[in-house]
Design brief:
Helices cover 41% and strands 18% of the residues. It is built from nine helices and nine strands. The protein has helices at 3-21, 40-48, 59-68, 87-93, 103-112, 142-150, 170-189, 205-210, 220-223; strands at residues 30-34, 53-56, 75-78, 96-100, 120-127, 137-138, 155-161, 196-198, 215-218. Bound molecules: pyridoxal-5'-phosphate.
Length: 230
């Protein structure tokens, strides 16, 4: 078995253990393999080990890899910050976008989704860390944004995403993830069913699963450390 296949299996085992520890079924939590900065060959190896959903942060990189790997049945998730002038390529290539933080981006994705493709699955990214984070819409603005996104024709609103600030404080992490869970329940009370909570990364996967995550986004624990060009 290759090293990447081994790492994938080990992450799958940890995920199953985290689900079990939380009294949940492993099948309730989808594993998204975050492949940003890693070459197409690494994705091929992880795909060959059974992984189908891959996450990318940069538009050019997503478009390049999607073209290079067009022979594989990959489900592409865009999870990075998205500028409104770069939505077209994402609308044409991605199956999911997790990082909707304002209506303009959602409107453009809906308008640019090619006819004949299924609706683009989307999550609204919420800032659950207050002043410690700049990404995601403010919690107070989330309900209105969710209602507006739900009305767009070529998007399928699936749920919520967050990236808490890195912290070793388990109670703080639980509180941050809890904010997303509470928002999901608040929206359910007004009749909006959101089936996805995209939360948890390599460092905080068990805490996210305990807090109700349905999709964890794991990069480092599968692919190794990232090296960014200087
Ligand atoms: C890079 C990234 C991840 C994966 O992080 P790891 O710590 O490498 O697991 C998850 N989510 C988002 C939004 C990311 O940008």
């Amino acid at each position: 078995m290759t090293q990447l296949a081994q790492a994938l299996h080990s992450v799958r085992d940890s995920l199953a253990a985290a689900a079990q520890a939380a009294g949940r079924q492993p099948a309730e939590v989808t594993l998204l393999a975050v492949s940003k900065t890693f070459p197409a060959d690494a994705i091929r190896a992880v795909y060959a080990a059974g992984q189908r959903a891959f996450g990318e942060n940069y538009v050019q990189e997503l478009a390049g890899k999607a073209a290079e790997l067009a022979d594989l049945a990959i489900e592409w998730h865009f999870i990075g910050p998205l500028q409104s002038n770069k939505t077209r390529q994402v609308a044409e290539v991605a199956h999911w976008v997790h990082s909707i933080d304002r209506l303009k981006v959602a409107e453009r994705l809906s308008a640019q989704r090619p006819a004949g493709m299924p609706p683009l699955n989307v999550c609204v990214q919420v800032n659950v860390s207050g002043e410690d984070s700049k990404s995601g819409c403010a919690l107070e603005e989330a309900p209105a944004l969710l209602r507006a996104v739900a009305a767009l024709p070529n998007l399928r609103l699936r749920g919520l995403m967050c990236i808490p600030e890195p912290t070793p404080d388990a109670a703080l992490l639980a509180a941050r993830f809890g904010v997303l869970r509470q928002l999901q329940q608040q929206m359910a009370a007004e009749g909006m069913q959101l089936d996805t909570l995209s939360m948890g990364m390599s460092a905080d996967m068990p805490q996210a699963v305990a807090a109700g995550s349905t999709m964890v986004r794991v990069g480092t624990a599968i692919f190794g450390s990232r090296h960014y060009p200087a």
